[in-house]
Amino acid sequence: MADQTSGTEAPRRFLFLDASARTDGNSVRLARLAAESSLPPGAEQRWLRLDEHPLPPFRDLRHTGDGGYPEPTGHERTLLDATLAATDLVFVAPLYWYSLPTSAKLYLDHWSAWMRVPGVDFRARLGGGTIWGVTALATGDDKAEPLIGTLRLTAEYMGMRWGGVLLGNGSRPGEVLDDERAVIAAKSFFAG
To answer: Any idea where the domains of the chain sit in the sequence?
Structure first.
């Protein structure tokens, strides 16, 4: 995204969405290492823990009344505003039952509403941004394919770039930092 007034590149704004059920879990530790090591110069970063911004159950209102959604408030407004302000969305999400944790899936479900809130232009405003994933898992990397597919297809649908996923192995807190392959990959993950 270029700054229209000066012709220079505007700073990138990374929103890290921590979807872990564990505070300071392996996915977060790996994401923090990647952020410390490989964010572009001048990039801003904001971290939000989804469990600290709980969303109500998603209700599909597309075929009721006028099909519109109310203006978001509370935690939903916080997450919407943070999402719109970001150039890069980083899902920091451990692999739970081969997919995203509940809080991350619920956040994505709310995108369906945000695309229909009058005046928000959610899909158009996210277009051109980038989606990334940082995931810790306790099994082989191939088990993360459903999670990866969800994020990649979301990026495609929204007209966003797919930045890729950083995978690390570890179950007990801190074990992911013993995964040499993941640590090496983290040091250049956001640079590409």
So the answer is: 13-54+67-191
Q: Using the 8-state DSSP alphabet, how is residue 139 labeled?
A: S
Residue with token string 């939903």: 76
Q: Is the dihedral of CA 151, 91, 188, 126 positive or negative?
A: positive
pTM: 0.93
Backbone region of residue 117 per phi and psi (left: phi > 0; alpha: psi in -120 to 50; beta: other values)? beta
With a cut of 50, which residues of the chain have pLDDT below it? Answer: 1-4
Token pair listed for 136: 């810790």
With tokens 């995108």, the residue in question is: 111
Residue 165 three-state SS: strand
Return the amino acid letter for 130: T
Q: Would you call 180 exposed, middle or buried from its count of C-beta atoms within 10 A (0-12, 13-18, 19+)? A: exposed
Tell the CATH topology of 13-54+67-191.
Rossmann fold (3.40.50)
